[in-house]
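ENTRY TYPE: paired fold submission
RECORD: A
CONTENT: sequence, then structure tokens
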Amino acid sequence: MVKYLQTIHTFASRYDDCSMEIRTIDRIPTNSPIAACVDNIALFDNISKIKGLTFPVKIDFILSIMCEQGTLVLNYDQRTFSLSKNCILVLRPGHVMNSYHVSADFRGHCIMVSSDYLGDTLPSMSRILPCMVGVMDRPVIQLTDEEAQNQLELYRILRKKAYESNPTPFRLETVSSMLKALFFETLGLYSEHMSEDNVGKMRRKDAILYDFIRYVERDFRSERAVSYYAQKLCVSPKHLSATVKEASGRTASDWIDSYVVMEAKIMLRNTGMTIQEISMKLNFANQSFFGKYFKHLVGVSPKEYRVTAGAE
């Protein structure tokens, strides 16, 4: 079944491959009332702004919700979680939301960031993966008043910069840096709330994902085949693909491609290397193959991306 995009008021969504009943929120249209001036980020403190959202719906974003007052009850993946004052919830991409309910006095805020955008912003994934496993196991944590205040201050500054009507130079870099600060602040809180046993212990599938990411970070410039990494981990390519998908919500190929594309974007934006030189650096057979690979994943050719990035 061919995937296709369909706009439903606030969000852009696509039908899931497996069912015509479940849509996937995979981007925020620029004409959405909650869209920031920076693509693929939305920050809002009024849930009523989410219009036209029918359930169930699959979230292909990293979603953070903080309850400042009242209560929020959220059901996803057939699990129910309740947030009260100073509670924060973080969801990784791939979860299916079934319903939510807020009390009459609810006040809080939400942050939605595309995984691609955050992936371009963050450093080594292997450093933060153990903590992300903790987020999956315990998505809701209770903050102290001081921790909650720190979260609010960072959110307000980030929101102001992301939505300002008269942007200053380097706004994109400013927003990226602030988003990174908020992400690590939140991840640090989850780390502190994890027991020592959980910090040092990962399930087998998470351990495979962790080792896979470490190998990808080391070798993606020269190796893009899933079979190569499966051999390194002494498992079959089929087993590796299934395990990585189950543990992270993304296929092994997606992970490899994301690192290759991120590196290509960095070189196109920040170096004077020719496209031919970049293709050789990333071990492509020729410039033509690299161009087709890049355009398939990014939507524009390397040359078009370089021109657009240089104009930002």
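RECORD: B
CONTENT: sequence, then structure tokens
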Amino acid sequence: MRVLAGRRFWVDVLCSLFSVLCSLFSVLCSLFSVLCSLFSVLCSLFSVLCSLLSLTSKDKEPTTENREQRTDNIKFFGSVYRWRILALLPLNNHEIRIYMRYLLIALLPLVALSNCKNAGGDQAVEDKPQLQTVEVTDSLGYVVKYTRRAFDYAKQGEFSRRSPDGKLLEVAHFAGDTLHGLRILFYETGDTQIVETYQDGNFEGPYKAYYPNGQLEFIGQYSANTMDGEWKRYYDTGELMEIVTLRDNLENGPFKEYYKNGKLKTEGNYKDGDYENGLLKKYDESGTLIQTMNCEMGVCRTVWKKD
């Protein structure tokens, strides 16, 4: 198992490095695309400038002597014409056609590179799935389905578990391979059993548990992965059974117990767990006080009792 874990670690490292390299390449391609766009704008401006200059030139065919002279100059790729353009000297139609021909030849490689970038780099990034869906069936037939991140296989998003006959038993939400958000457990009948809330893998927020008949059994609050504050328990018929104060997952503070008819049954204080401490009072079903006791860490002695 250690060898497999080590291999998995290095595979994850290599995948992460490859992802970083792909991101850098994508940034470079984006910068190149911006440069190509700027160059295209400059070419458009140059074309407009040439059109304006052609309107000011004399629209006439060059003489044989001038044509031969210009042909010699063109062999040096515009050693004369280049300076004429920079000086914004007027050009005739023949000269403009020659310059545009060289400009198109120079643009072809840039257009080809831009098309390769759009067809290859961007498509590779877009087609690469960010999340993968995984479905696993264990030896007993239970089906687990969840989504995970493609680059490190960490659970991300919805998680579900079903019984062999397809009944939903659990739904949860993961973030970075840890529970985050609601997690709901179900009885095989389909009724809700537990609803709990997580934050970064720890209990945080409301907690509810239900009887198989759908009635609420427990309700309370978690804070920083510990039960804290007032927790309530109910009878399976819906009546309030008990109210307990908890701190650090232990009973600490006042508590009250009730009969099904709603009358107070017992009241007192717990300390460091299920240990009565201090004055404890007991009542009959009519709500009449019948006994008082003095308790010390769960050991109680009667101080008064109704005859």
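NOTES ON RECORD B: The domain at 131-305 is CATH 3.90.930.1 (Outer Surface Protein A; domain 3). Confidence is low (pLDDT under 50) at residues 1-6, 56-62, 73-90, 116-128.
STATUS: closed
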